[in-house]
Amino acid sequence: MITHDTKIRVWYKHTDQMGFVHHSNYICYYEEARSDLMRSMGLSYADMERKGIIMPILEVQSVYKRPAFFDDCLTVRILLREMPTARIRFEYEVYNSQGELLNTGMTALGFLHADTHRPTRAPQWFVEALAAAMK
């Protein structure tokens, strides 16, 4: 299993009229955590696209337990429990600075050839980078 923490500061524009972080921002926080995890392994979405692979979102789940507020420092923990095939599944836990669990979520992404948009298995170099990170 791979776990990685990303820190995110809540901006004022992320909040709604009630003063809570708007629910749609958690999906963006998940994306930031995925990008940060990939960069920590020496990969990036830009590199994948240059190599002809795109990774569209296939599924999103998000469970809201407690609100986050303007200027909170959040920790988004991303978990990867299994190696990808033609799909990859990430799980998320979002905590505030007091360690309270605010949100849990999941995203499933597919691997597609950029030119044909046809499904493919995860590239070998991507799987190898994940395997190295799991050690």
UniProtKB/TrEMBL annotation:
Organism superkingdom: Bacteria
List the GO molecular function terms: fatty acyl-CoA hydrolase activity
Name the keywords, alphabetized. Hydrolase
Any single Pfam family the record assigns to this protein: 4HBT_2
- Coiled-coil regions in this chain? none
The family note in this entry says:
Belongs to the 4-hydroxybenzoyl-CoA thioesterase family.
Q: What is this protein called?
A: 4-hydroxybenzoyl-CoA thioesterase
